[in-house]
Specification:
Number of strands: 5
Helix content: 25-40%
Strand content: 25-35%
Mean pLDDT: 94
Order of helices and strands: EHHEEEHE
Number of helices: 3
Low-confidence stretches: none
Strand order of the largest sheet: 2-3-4
Number of domains: 1
Largest sheet: 3 strands, antiparallel
Length: 90
């Protein structure tokens, strides 16, 4: 499943918040195409999305893990994080 994290996701996202980080916002937008999204929770290596009352779990690739680390530690990295896309696998 292709997930696209946009600049808007980055601007609206909250650091260290598993339900409102940029990846969670992108996941919610992508899965809303399939039904009602009631929950998204992003961990470091995985994410869970609840669509139509069914929990679905996906793995996050290293690029997404690095993005999470960089976004949560913006004061410690050089330069802002940038939009990106990744493939999530079950």
């Amino acid at each position: 499943m292709k997930i696209i994290v946009t600049q808007e996701d980055i601007e609206k996202g909250a650091p260290e918040d598993s339900t409102f980080c940029p990846i969670a916002l992108a996941v919610k937008r992508r899965f809303s195409e399939f039904g009602q999204v009631t929950e998204v929770e992003v961990k470091y290596e995985t994410f869970k999305v609840a669509v139509n009352k069914q929990n679905i779990y996906y793995s996050l690739p290293r690029t997404a893990q690095k993005f999470i680390r960089d976004f949560d530690c913006l004061d410690e990295i050089e330069g802002p994080v940038k939009p990106f896309e990744f493939i999530a696998r079950r």
